[in-house]
Amino acid sequence: MTVSPSNLILIGMPGAGKSTVGIVLAKLTSRDFVDTDVLIQSSQKRTLQKIIDVDGYIALRQIEQDVLVRLDVRNCVIATGGSAVYSHSAMAHLKTSGLVIFLDADIRTLESRIRNFSSRGLAKRADQSFDDLFKERAILYRYYADITVACAGLTHEEVCTSIMAQAGELTLHPGSAPRG
């Protein structure tokens, strides 16, 4: 028996609203909610920033990949960490169980939401600015996205409405075949 993709996987920069939108979207679509940053922190018993401070950002990316490739859930909204897209194997695994949705927020919006850039636990090089990180990751987010939502000026509810409209029947009836 083939299992139809039932997860909605949110990708995007820190500050794009993945966790907040994810919770609202899960409620609106009767799905469970999974935050992979929380899974990482709970498995490591330390914050993302502590992992970076002690082991480096590459170690955090490896831990994230390990958590994502082992993730086996159905009928969930999954908020990934901003660096999930650095792992092709993790993204390929996630795409087998759902639609990948890029929450595309502009750099000004992100910078206004991220006040703790140096202590937030971002998997980036020490010499890398937020703008450089944004430019580097945007390419990967677009590559893996099945759906892109331009979030500028939208409320969390409006972002969810856009996701549900673009996802079509799959969002409204998990497990059903998309219209074609």
Layout of helices and strands, plus pairs?
Layout: E1 7-11, H1 18-28, E2 32-35, H2 36-44, H3 48-55, H4 57-70, E3 76-79, H5 88-95, E4 98-104, H6 107-113, H7 130-144, E5 147-150, H8 156-167, H9 169-172
Parallel strand pairs: 1-3, 1-4, 2-3, 4-5
How would you portray this structure in words?
Mean pLDDT is 86; it is low at 169-180. It is built from 9 helices and 5 strands. Strands 2-3-1-4-5 form a 5-stranded parallel sheet, with helices on both faces. The protein has 180 residues and is an alpha/beta fold. The two termini are 21 Å apart. It has a single domain (10-172), classed as Rossmann fold, CATH 3.40.50. It is globular.
Largest sheet: 5 strands, parallel
Specify the helix fraction band.
40-55%
- Whole-number tally of structural domains: 1
Give the helix tally.
9
- Spatially, the strands of the biggest sheet line up as 2-3-1-4-5
In short:
The protein has helices spanning 18-28, 36-44, 48-55, 57-70, 88-95, 107-113, 130-144, 156-167, 169-172, and strands spanning 7-11, 32-35, 76-79, 98-104, 147-150. It has 180 residues and is of the alpha/beta class.
Question: Tags for this entry?
Answer:
single chain; 180 residues; alpha/beta; Rossmann fold; five-stranded parallel sheet; 9 helices; 49% helix; disordered C terminus
